[in-house]
Amino acid sequence: MVMTAIPYQRFSGMNVRPIETIQRGDNMRIKQSLNFELPLELEATKPAEARGLGRDGVRLMVSDYAKDTIQEGHFFDLAEFLTAGDLLVINTSGTLAAALVGQRDGLPIGVHLSTQISAEPRPIAVVELRTRDNKPLFDGNAGEIIALPDGRLRLLAPHNGSRRLWLAAFEIPVSLNCYLAAHGRPIRYSYVREDWGIESYQTVFAEQFGSAEMPSAGRAFTPELVTRLVNKGVQFAPITLHTGVASVEANEPPYEEWFSVSAESATRINRAKQDGRRIIAIGTTAVRAVESAVDQAGQVQAKRGWTDRLITPAQPPQIIDSLLTGFHEPEATHLAMLTAIASREHLEHVYNVALENRYLWHEFGDLHLLTR
Fold it and tell me: What is the value of pTM for the model shown?
């Protein structure tokens, strides 16, 4: 294993800088942490396996935000950075083949299923329309019909006033999940240059299928690595949060997503918190689910339903103190969550190192363990 400690001063001249923007209405200010230029060659365009690596062969940066230090290794080294009693909160949501190709006025149009709202008497879902060159469309009309293979889609109304997202009714002969399995493919953004099968977008933890986009922080785990972690005494608390479409072009805050925290997982999390052990969320989705289940006394309760909870410096996490996540795009709203855990100065350090040392971005890229 190769681990390198990197001092802050070495990268103090890089071009990562703090920013501040307004998101989700004029009355909510979300302080974001970083703005920088992401070189195209640092975008992961294919899965690790297609680059000659194992899933756990991606690079891993481990940053201690209390000490402002960084170590580097590979994801298969993860056990070396964890200790017995650490609790990993994992998302068991599986990824759907949520991208469809329809016809609008005789021309192809992309349909990205985001979130299923109801199943009966016909599937109602939030969808995003995409152009032939895979960019979001903003010109839908209520009542419009889009032809689909063996069915059609009826636009009902803009979702929560969005110009990008629509409530829509699927008029199809089978359940929505069966329909997607037959006619859909995984959502793919332009930086991924070719189609990969749905298995490339599943994590080893997937049990309940409902995510439009992969909970990607869990992608690098393998059964062998999970076994090593369990043997070391690392504990797991499963939760479920079905992700919607993020639209990397929009950098919008996440909207309502369905989540579930079981009584058993709530007990494990509360016990770890009481004992002062690290609670490490595997992905921003796990943070969002856990923090949506916290009661007024600061205890995690068994809970399921819809959440629009945002984690920001103004609304920091009460439970989660560490996070495994990928590297996020410039000005991405997920960076607000990171600045709710660590200081902006520490994150500037992290992202300067990531840029200098050529880490890869996006769902097939490298990972960052932000911890204490």
Answer: 0.91
